[in-house]
Design goal:
Structural class of chain A: mainly alpha
CATH class of chain A: Mainly Alpha
Strand content of chain A: under 5%
Radius of gyration of chain A: 20 Å
Strand content of chain B: under 5%
Oligomer: heterotrimer
CATH topology of chain A: ABC transporter involved in vitamin B12 uptake, BtuC
Number of helices of chain A: 13
Number of helices of chain B: 14
Radius of gyration of chain B: 21 Å
Number of domains of chain A: 1
Low-confidence stretches of chain A: none
Helix content of chain B: over 70%
Mean pLDDT of chain B: 90
Shape of chain A: globular
Helix content of chain A: over 70%
Number of strands of chain A: 2
Largest sheet of chain B: 2 strands, antiparallel
Chain lengths: 317, 358, 270
C-alpha cells in the first residue's frame, strides 16, 4: 500500500516521461483557463469587494450566445462581436439593477446577489438556447483543429492545436490585461480602488464607470474561456463547474493578487491532473479532480493563512 | 391596537426572559400551531403534503442549522448539502445494519455523525476567515459528494449507487419507505422540527448564542473579553452540522424516499443558503419564512399556467422557475437585505404603536 | 519598588500592594522596536495612567497587558507570579477586562446582550442545559442578569437596555463598552483611550464614571489616554512613554515637573 502511494507513481513518471509531459500539458491548458477565470474574479473583487459567483455562468452564457447566434446564421466573427456586445449589455444591466441598489451592503449580501444573478442567467439561458449540449464553432472561428506530434525519448506527445491556440490566446489576454492595469489611467484606477476605496473615489474616478468596465472585462474573459473550453468539451451548463475551480485558485493566490491568480491557476491545473492520473485513478477510483484543488488549497491555507503570496497579517485592535 | 404591549409589565427577570414576553406573540404562535397540528393535516391533500408541508419543514430545519453557523456565528458555509448527505447516509447505514433501531432514534443519531464531520471541516475556520473559509467549505462539499459516490459500503454496494429507504415501522405503523402514509410522515417531521426549533431558540438566546454572536460581530474583541474562539466556532460547527444532518436524514427518509450522491450537490447547498438569507440571517423565524417562499414559489408557478389555461411545457416552467428565484433573490436583497424576518419585525413594531405613526 | 504596603493618595485613599508588574518589557515587530525595556507596576485600587504622544507605544503596552501581543523580551507579573504565555481569552478569564479605542461592541446585539457577554466568563452551564433552558443554564441567566442590571443602573443606561447597539450615539456606545467590561467584575480594568473623540460634557461624564467605579467597587484601573488634562486629574500615578521608552513615572505632580516629559510632550503645544 505504501509503495503504491509513495513509490510507484514516481516510478511510473520516470518510466514514461513522455506520458508525464502529456499529463502536465493537459494540466497546463486547464490551468491557464482556471487562471483566466480567477483573474476575472480578482478584478471584480479588487474594484468592488464583490465575490462574483456569476463568473462561471458568464462563461456558459457567453459561449451559448456565441453558438446560438451562429446557429441563427450570423457569420462566426460577427457573432463574436455581437456576443461581446451582449456581455457589455449584461455588465451595464448588472451594474444598474443589482450593484447600484446594493452599494454599501455587507459582503455576504452582494455575494448572494451574484448567486441570484447566476440563477437568473441559468434560467434565461435555458429558455433562450435550450439546455442540450452544443458544439463550439471552433473551425468557423479559424481555430486549427489538428494536432502536433512529438516523439521525445522515443515516446509520443500529442498537442492539440486548439489547445495550443487556447494557451496562446489566454497568455495574450493576460498580457493585455496586465498592460491595461499598469499602463492606462483606467487600469491604475481599478488597482487603486483595490487598495483604498475612499481615496480612489476622492481623486475623481466614477465608480459606476469602473464597475461596468470591470464586469465587461470579466465578460470578455468569460467569452475567451467559453470558446477555449467549449472547443474541448462542448458547450453546456456543465461548463459552469470549471468556474468553481477558480475558487481554490483564489484561495491559494489571494483574492486580490493578479499574479497569484495566474501562478495559482497553473499550479492547480497541473497538480490536479498529476494527482488524478498517478494517484486518483489507480488508488481512489478516479474523478478526484472535483475536489483535489479545494483540499489542496485548504491544506496550504491551514499552514499559511495569508495564502501562498500574501504578506503576513499583523492583527490590530 | 391588537398588538398593544402597554400594560404588560414584567416583575422578575425570569418573566422578562420568557420565550414570548409579549402576550400577542404567544397567541399568534398558538394559532399557527393549531393550523400546523390540526387544520393542515385534516385538510391537506397528498399533493400538498408532498410538495409543500413536508419539504417546507425540512428545508426550514436545514436552513436553521446553516443559520446557526452563518447567521449567528458568522462562518459562511457553502457545504450544507454535503452535511445533509452525511446525515442521510449515516441514517441509511444505521437502519440497514440495525433494523431493530427505532427510526426516530436513528434519525436523531445520524446528526451525531454529521456533527463530527462538521467539526472536522470546521477546524480550518480557526485560521481562515470570510470568503476564504466559504471556499474551504466547498472542499467539504465536493469531497463528501465524491465520497458518497465512490465508497460503495455507504450504499450497501447497490448496483444503482443510490440509497433506497426501506419500509420502517414504529409501534406497528409505517413511518418511512414506500408503505408510509404522508400524514404520518408529516406528523413525525413536524414533531422533530418543532422540538429542534425550541432547542435552537434556547441555544441562540442564551450564553452560547451570545458567544457566537460576539464571535461573528468582532472576533478580536470577543477573544479579548474571554471567549475561546476555537471553542465558539467549533461548537457552532457542531450544533449546526447536527441540525443539518438531522434535516438530511429527514430529507431522504421522510420525503424523497431515495437519494443519489448528486442530490447533495452544490445546488442544494445554495438553495438552503437562499432560504437562510432571504429569511434572515441571525433569525430562527426567518428560516420558516424563507422556506415557505423558496419551496412554495415553484409550486405556485408550476400550477398557475395550468390553472389559467396557458399551455406551457414542464421544462419551460422549470426554467422560468429558476429565473424567477434568481430574480427574487436579488429583489428581496434590495428591498430588505436583512430578510423576511426583519420585515416582520418592522411590521410588528408598527402594529405595536398603531394607530400612532411613531 | 517591591514593597507590599502601598501608599496613601492625595485624597486619602489607601492603595494596596502590586497587582501587576511589567518587567523589562520589549516588543518588536520585525525590525521595528515598538517598546524598549519598560518596567512599571500597577497597584491594587489605584488609577494608573499611561500617557505619551502618538506612536509612543501606549496601545502596544495595553495589548501586552491584555495578552493580545506577546512581548519579545521581559515578563508580566500578575498577582505575585510571572504570567505564563497565554491566549487573550485566558488573560480575560484571570480577571483582566478592557475597552477599546475604536469601540468594539457587538453591533448585532442589544445593549443588554452586549453587557451580558461581559458575564460569560462567569457562566458554565453545559450545552444540553442551555438547549433545554433548564437547570443550571436558567439559574445562571437569572443570576447574571441581576449583576448586569446593577452595572446598567450604575452607568445610567437603563432606558436603552433593549436597544440594538448599532443605533446608539458614540458617547453612549463608549459607556456601554465600559458596562460590558465592568460586568466581568474584573480585578484589573484596562481603558484604551476612554475619552477619545468625546466632547467636553461626555468627557466629564466618563471621568465621573471612572472615578465612581474605582470608588464604589475598588476596581484597579489602568488607562491610556491622549488627553493630558483629564489624565492628570483622574489618575494616582502616571507612566509617560515616548518613542517606545519610558521617560517618566510618578504622581501627576512629579510627572508635570519632569524635564524629559515636558520636552517630549507637555512642551509641545497642540
Amino acid at each position: 500500500m505504501l509503495t503504491e502511494i509513495f513509490i510507484k507513481p514516481f516510478a511510473d513518471m520516470v518510466e514514461a516521461p513522455d506520458f508525464l509531459l502529456q499529463v502536465l500539458w493537459e494540466g497546463l491548458v486547464s490551468g491557464i483557463l482556471y487562471a483566466l477565470i480567477a483573474l476575472g474574479f480578482v478584478l471584480i473583487y479588487r474594484s468592488s469587494r464583490i465575490f462574483n459567483f456569476a463568473q462561471g455562468i458568464m462563461v456558459v452564457f457567453a459561449a451559448l450566445t456565441l453558438v446560438g447566434l451562429h446557429a441563427m446564421g450570423v457569420p462566426a466573427w460577427v457573432s463574436v462581436g455581437l456576443t461581446l456586445l451582449v456581455m457589455f449589455g449584461l455588465a451595464v444591466a448588472i451594474e444598474r439593477v443589482v450593484l447600484r441598489p446594493l452599494v454599501g451592503q455587507p459582503d455576504i449580501i452582494l455575494f448572494m446577489a451574484t448567486i441570484g444573478v447566476t440563477l437568473f442567467l441559468i434560467g434565461l439561458g435555458e429558455i433562450i438556447f435550450g439546455g442540450e449540449n452544443k458544439v463550439m464553432i471552433t473551425e468557423e472561428l479559424g481555430i486549427p483543429t489538428g494536432s502536433i506530434l512529438f516523439e521525445p525519448w522515443g515516446g509520443l506527445l500529442i498537442l492539440e492545436q486548439k489547445d495550443i491556440t487556447a494557451v496562446i490566446v489566454a497568455a495574450l489576454l493576460v498580457v493585455a490585461l496586465l498592460l491595461f492595469l499598469n499602463k492606462t489611467r483606467m487600469g491604475r484606477a481599478i488597482r487603486a480602488l483595490g487598495d483604498d476605496h475612499q481615496a480612489a473615489l476622492s481623486v475623481g474616478i466614477s465608480l459606476q464607470t469602473i464597475w461596468v468596465l470591470v464586469w465587461f472585462i470579466a465578460g470578455i474573459i468569460a467569452l475567451v474561456t467559453g470558446i477555449a473550453w467549449g472547443a474541448r468539451a462542448g458547450v453546456s451548463f456543465a461548463l459552469e463547474v470549471i468556474a468553481y475551480k477558480a475558487l481554490p485558485v483564489l484561495m491559494l493566490g489571494g483574492l486580490e493578487s493578479i499574479s497569484g491568480a495566474i501562478i495559482g491557476g497553473l499550479m492547480i491545473g497541473m497538480l490536479e491532473k498529476l494527482f488524478e492520473i498517478y494517484w486518483g485513478q489507480p488508488l481512489l477510483g478516479g474523478n478526484t479532480e472535483t475536489w483535489f484543488a479545494f483540499v489542496l488549497a485548504l491544506i496550504v491555507l491551514l499552514f499559511r493563512p495569508q495564502g501562498l503570496f500574501g504578506e503576513k497579517i499583523i492583527e490590530r485592535v | 391596537m391588537f398588538y398593544r404591549t402597554a400594560g404588560q409589565f414584567k416583575t422578575s427577570y425570569e418573566s422578562d426572559q420568557a420565550l414570548f414576553p409579549v402576550r400577542q406573540d404567544a397567541i399568534l404562535l398558538a394559532v399557527i400551531l393549531v393550523f400546523a397540528w390540526v387544520i393542515f393535516p385534516l385538510t391537506a391533500s397528498e399533493f400538498t403534503f408532498q410538495t409543500l408541508l413536508i419539504p417546507i419543514l425540512i428545508y426550514a430545519l436545514a436552513a436553521m442549522g446553516l443559520n446557526i453557523l452563518t447567521g449567528y456565528a458568522g462562518q459562511l458555509s457553502l457545504g450544507t448539502a454535503a452535511f445533509m448527505g452525511v446525515g442521510a447516509y449515516a441514517c441509511y447505514k444505521m437502519v440497514t445494519l440495525m433494523p431493530w433501531l427505532n427510526p426516530v432514534v436513528a434519525i436523531l443519531l445520524s446528526g451525531v455523525f454529521s456533527a463530527g464531520v462538521g467539526v472536522a471541516f470546521g477546524i480550518p475556520s480557526l485560521r481562515i476567515k470570510g470568503f476564504y473559509l466559504a471556499i474551504a467549505t466547498l472542499a467539504a462539499q465536493f469531497f463528501l459528494v465524491w465520497l458518497f459516490e465512490k465508497w460503495a459500503w455507504l450504499y450497501n454496494y447497490n448496483a444503482s449507487g443510490a440509497i433506497q429507504v426501506p419500509n420502517l415501522t414504529m409501534f406497528g405503523v409505517y413511518v418511512a419507505g414506500p408503505q408510509a402514509d404522508s400524514w404520518v410522515q408529516y406528523y413525525l417531521v413536524l414533531a422533530i422540527v418543532s422540538v429542534m426549533t425550541v432547542l435552537c431558540i434556547n441555544l441562540t438566546r442564551g450564553n452560547l448564542g451570545r458567544t457566537w454572536k460576539a464571535t461573528r460581530d468582532v472576533d478580536i474583541a470577543a477573544e479579548l473579553i474571554g471567549i475561546n474562539l476555537m471553542k465558539s466556532k467549533l461548537t457552532a460547527f457542531m450544533v449546526s452540522s447536527y441540525v443539518v444532518g438531522v434535516a438530511g436524514a429527514l430529507f431522504v427518509f421522510m420525503w424523497r424516499g431515495a437519494a443519489e450522491p448528486n442530490l447533495f450537490d452544490i445546488p442544494l447547498s445554495f438553495r438552503i443558503l437562499f432560504i437562510a438569507i432571504i429569511g434572515g440571517l441571525g433569525s430562527i423565524l426567518g428560516n420558516y419564512l424563507g422556506a415557505i417562499l423558496i419551496v412554495g414559489l415553484p409550486v405556485v408557478l408550476g400550477t398557475l399556467p395550468a390553472a389559467l389555461g396557458i399551455p406551457i411545457s414542464s421544462s419551460m416552467v422549470e426554467h422560468i422557475n429558476v429565473m424567477m428565484v434568481g430574480g427574487l433573490i436579488v429583489f428581496f436583497l434590495i428591498i430588505e437585505p436583512h430578510g423576511l424576518a426583519q420585515l416582520w419585525r418592522l411590521i410588528r413594531e408598527k402594529l405595536i404603536i398603531w394607530p400612532f405613526p411613531h | 519598588m517591591k514593597d507590599t504596603q502601598g501608599y496613601l493618595t492625595a485624597d486619602g485613599r489607601q492603595i494596596g500592594g502590586v497587582l501587576m508588574e511589567m518587567r523589562n518589557i520589549t516588543l518588536r515587530f520585525g525590525g521595528v522596536v515598538a517598546i524598549e525595556d519598560i518596567s512599571f507596576d500597577i497597584r491594587e485600587g489605584e488609577i494608573r495612567a499611561i500617557i505619551g504622544p502618538n506612536g509612543a507605544g501606549k496601545s502596544s503596552m495595553l495589548n501586552i497587558i491584555s495578552g493580545f501581543y506577546t512581548p519579545s523580551n521581559g515578563e508580566v507579573w500578575y498577582k505575585g507570579a510571572p504570567r505564563p504565555l497565554m491566549k487573550p481569552y485566558e488573560v480575560a478569564r484571570m480577571g483582566v477586562a478592557r475597552t477599546f479605542q475604536n469601540i468594539a461592541l457587538f453591533e448585532g446585539m442589544t445593549v443588554l446582550d452586549n453587557v451580558m457577554t461581559g458575564r460569560l466568563t462567569h457562566m458554565h452551564a453545559g450545552l444540553l442545559s442551555q438547549a433545554l433552558w433548564w437547570g443550571r443554564a436558567r439559574d445562571e441567566e437569572i443570576a447574571n442578569r441581576e449583576v448586569v442590571e446593577k452595572v446598567i443602573d450604575f452607568l445610567e443606561i437603563q432606558n436603552i437596555r433593549k436597544t440594538p447597539v448599532g443605533r446608539l450615539p458614540y458617547g453612549l456606545k463608549k459607556r456601554v463598552e465600559l458596562a460590558r467590561a465592568l460586568a466581568a467584575e474584573p480585578s484589573l480594568l484596562l481603558l484604551d483611550e476612554p475619552m477619545a473623540g468625546m466632547n467636553v460634557e461626555e468627557k466629564e461624564d466618563m471621568s465621573r464614571f471612572i472615578l465612581d467605579v474605582n470608588d464604589e467597587f475598588g476596581t484597579t484601573i489602568a488607562l491610556i489616554e491622549h488627553d493630558m488634562g483629564v489624565v492628570m486629574d483622574l489618575s494616582d500615578r502616571v507612566v509617560v512613554m515616548d518613542y517606545g521608552k519610558k521617560i517618566g513615572d510618578g504622581t501627576p505632580d512629579e510627572v508635570r515637573g519632569n524635564q524629559d516629559v515636558i520636552d517630549a510632550y507637555l512642551g509641545v503645544a497642540h
